[in-house]
Amino acid sequence: MFNDSSAEPAAGSSGSNENVTKIEPIRMPTIEEMRAQEVWNNCAVKSVASGVMGGGLGLMMGLFMGALDNPIMHDTMTGRQQFVYTAKQMGQRSWSSCKTFAVMGLVYSAAECIVEKARAKHDIINTAVAGCVTGGTMSARGGPKAACMGCVGFATFSVLIEKFFDRHT
Amino acid sequence: MATPNPFPAGISKEQAFSMAQTEMEYRVELFNKLAQTCFSKCVDKRYKEAELNMGDNSCIDRCVSKYWQVNGMVGQLLSAGKPPM
């Protein structure tokens, strides 16, 4: 941290009371600051947080899609029944979407964290491998061929998104 | 080298002070070289963000650990063996 000579003395760091010290020595981070940063270096914490965010996103998307998709039947039900029915459909839809997105976020974040820690490098390969793992696990029910297609598709998608967000370099 | 007790027998104050100064210079040089080496090895030169990535962090951990171990080994060899140069 570079301090110019007009910096105010921080609370309790320099200590001399008589003359106002204007130049501060470089302050190493305290144990509390280091621990707070280390929390986000943990793979478990990061993946759970990503899973929660993915779940929230899935809820929003599921609500939106569920509201759009349900046909309104005027002749068989009264207004209040229609409302209840539509609300239930929206709830089911958004809950399943929430679960899907939460799992997706959790698996992607965990895979990327583990791969990056093992390789000790920050690359585009990390996102590709993590995308492949996520796509593979999510389409694993359809058999090995579906898993391969899901892997390639999701890896391509995540690489494109990463390049889109990195365009300013 | 074990840290000496304050003023052991036979060492004057000036000698202790100059020893401490040499030791301090050595430590500062070691830290600067360590930081420079591991920074040039681990951190990508095209800066994309201010924070250190997780990959950078684990690379720095490994680099510092290796550097420290090699430093210890070289110090032991130099102090114990004293090979004729």
From TrEMBL, chain A:
Compartments (UniProt record): Mitochondrion inner membrane
Pfam families: Tim17
Tree of life domain: Eukaryota
Bilayer topology annotation: Multi-pass membrane protein
GO cellular component, one term: TIM22 mitochondrial import inner membrane insertion complex
Keyword Disulfide bond: no
Record key words, sorted: Membrane, Mitochondrion, Mitochondrion inner membrane, Transmembrane, Transmembrane helix
InterPro entries referenced in this protein's UniProt entry, alphabetically: TIM22
Keyword Isomerase recorded: no
Molecular function as annotated in GO: mitochondrion targeting sequence binding; protein transmembrane transporter activity
GO BP of this protein: protein insertion into mitochondrial inner membrane
Region (Disordered): 1-23
Signal peptide: none
Ranges annotated as biased composition (Low complexity): 1-16
PANTHER family per UniProt: MITOCHONDRIAL IMPORT INNER MEMBRANE TRANSLOCASE SUBUNIT TIM22
Assigned protein family: Belongs to the Tim17/Tim22/Tim23 family.
Protein name per UniProt: Mitochondrial import inner membrane translocase subunit TIM22
From TrEMBL, chain B:
One term under GO cellular component: mitochondrial inner membrane
Residue intervals passing through the bilayer: none
Ranges of residues in domain Tim10-like: 17-78
One Pfam family per UniProt: zf-Tim10_DDP
Gene3D superfamilies: Mitochondrial import inner membrane translocase subunit tim13 like domains
Primary location group: mitochondrion
Keyword Aminoacyl-tRNA synthetase: no
GO biological process: protein insertion into mitochondrial inner membrane; protein transport
Topology class, membrane: Peripheral membrane protein
InterPro entries associated with the record: Tim10-like, Tim10-like_dom_sf
Keyword terms, alphabetized: Chaperone, Disulfide bond, Membrane, Metal-binding, Mitochondrion, Mitochondrion inner membrane, Protein transport, Translocation, Transport, Zinc
Compartments, as annotated in UniProt: Mitochondrion inner membrane
Domain of life assignment: Eukaryota
Any GO molecular function: metal ion binding
Family of the protein in this entry: Belongs to the small Tim family.
Chain's role: Mitochondrial intermembrane chaperone that participates in the import and insertion of some multi-pass transmembrane proteins into the mitochondrial inner membrane. Also required for the transfer of beta-barrel precursors from the TOM complex to the sorting and assembly machinery (SAM complex) of the outer membrane. Acts as a chaperone-like protein that protects the hydrophobic precursors from aggregation and guide them through the mitochondrial intermembrane space.
Subunit architecture: Heterohexamer.
Domain notes: The twin CX3C motif contains 4 conserved Cys residues that form 2 disulfide bonds in the mitochondrial intermembrane space.
PANTHER family: MITOCHONDRIAL IMPORT INNER MEMBRANE TRANSLOCASE SUBUNIT, MITOCHONDRIAL IMPORT INNER MEMBRANE TRANSLOCASE SUBUNIT TIM10
Entry protein name: Mitochondrial import inner membrane translocase subunit
Gene source species: Brassica napus
